[in-house]
From TrEMBL:
Keyword Transport attached: no
Organism listed in the record: Mycolicibacterium insubricum
NCBIfam families given in the database record: FGAM_synth_I, PRK03619.1
Purpose of the protein: Part of the phosphoribosylformylglycinamidine synthase complex involved in the purines biosynthetic pathway. Catalyzes the ATP-dependent conversion of formylglycinamide ribonucleotide (FGAR) and glutamine to yield formylglycinamidine ribonucleotide (FGAM) and glutamate. The FGAM synthase complex is composed of three subunits. PurQ produces an ammonia molecule by converting glutamine to glutamate. PurL transfers the ammonia molecule to FGAR to form FGAM in an ATP-dependent manner.
Cell compartment(s), UniProt: Cytoplasm
Residue numbers annotated as active site: C87, H195, E197
Stated name of the protein: Phosphoribosylformylglycinamidine synthase subunit PurQ
Principal localisation: cytoplasm
InterPro entries named in the record: Class_I_gatase-like (IPR029062), PRibForGlyAmidine_synth_PurQ (IPR010075)
Molecular-function GO term, any one: ATP binding
Annotated metabolic or biological route of this protein: Purine metabolism; IMP biosynthesis via de novo pathway; 5-amino-1-(5-phospho-D-ribosyl)imidazole from N(2)-formyl-N(1)-(5-phospho-D-ribosyl)glycinamide: step 1/2
GO CC terms, sorted: cytoplasm
Keywords for this protein: ATP-binding, Cytoplasm, Glutamine amidotransferase, Hydrolase, Ligase, Nucleotide-binding, Purine biosynthesis
């Protein structure tokens, strides 16, 4: 079975090529998806990659949620299709209502670009089954609006339902609860600020820890879960 992972390109997207390359490294077929086309081209999963969609005007991700392709992503996610939002993609998923909360300016108002350690809090999602719960992985982070915030009742629900997927070991942006990534209630939609697609080969990244997210997806889809 050939797994097809769609990777969206918006105006201002800059990590789509890396996300597609990581999909191929894991053994999947990477399928380019254009923001203006309401067509997912028969893919099995979708990645909303990082960058500065539409120049991050208004708020990061606020315009991208209206793109024709996102209407299809929202509908497909409602049917259980796995979706991963990375950095700006995480912001887009929150703006689109697929994940709760919001990403705001980092504490200190500085852009953060560094390799950071994440702790895996939930290894039962469609994108994290290859990791051990409690494992620490080294992934690059590069964002100016990566501070996760949500209302107290939303945070309590995320914590109570085990929907916090990753936490910062060293919280560099002030995210509430040290939250670096969260999941939908069914564990099919995951968003995180750090960039797993930049940690797929030890030679070029700080580690190959990010590849585990892609392998997890393949396991999920091949198992028909």
């Amino acid at each position: 079975m050939s797994i097809k992972i769609g990777v969206i390109t918006f105006p201002g997207t800059l990590d789509d090529v890396d996300a597609a390359r990581a999909a191929r490294l894991a053994g999947a077929e990477a399928v380019p998806l254009w923001h203006g086309d309401a067509d997912l081209r028969g893919v099995d999963a979708v990645i909303v990659p990082g960058g500065f969609s539409y120049g991050d005007y208004l708020r990061a991700g606020a315009i991208a949620k209206f793109a024709p392709v996102m209407g299809e992503v929202i509908a497909a996610a409602g049917r259980g299709m796995p979706v991963l939002g990375i950095c700006n993609g995480f912001q887009v998923l929150c703006e689109a209502g697929l994940l709760p909360g919001a990403l705001t300016r980092n504490a200190g108002l500085h852009f953060v670009c560094r390799d950071i350690w994440l702790r895996v809090e939930n290894n039962t999602t469609a994108w994290t089954s290859r990791y051990d719960a409690g494992a620490e992985i080294l992934i690059p982070l590069k964002s100016g609006e990566g501070r996760y915030q949500a209302a107290p009742e939303v945070l309590a629900e995320l914590e109570g339902d085990g929907r916090v997927v990753f936490r910062y070991v060293d919280n560099v942006n002030g995210s509430l609860g040290d939250i670096a990534g969260i999941a939908s209630a069914n564990g099919r939609v995951v968003g995180l600020m750090p960039h797993p697609e930049h940690a797929t080969e030890a030679l070029t990244g700080p580690s190959d820890d990010g590849l585990g997210m892609y392998y997890s997806l393949l396991d999920t889809l091949l198992a028909g879960v």
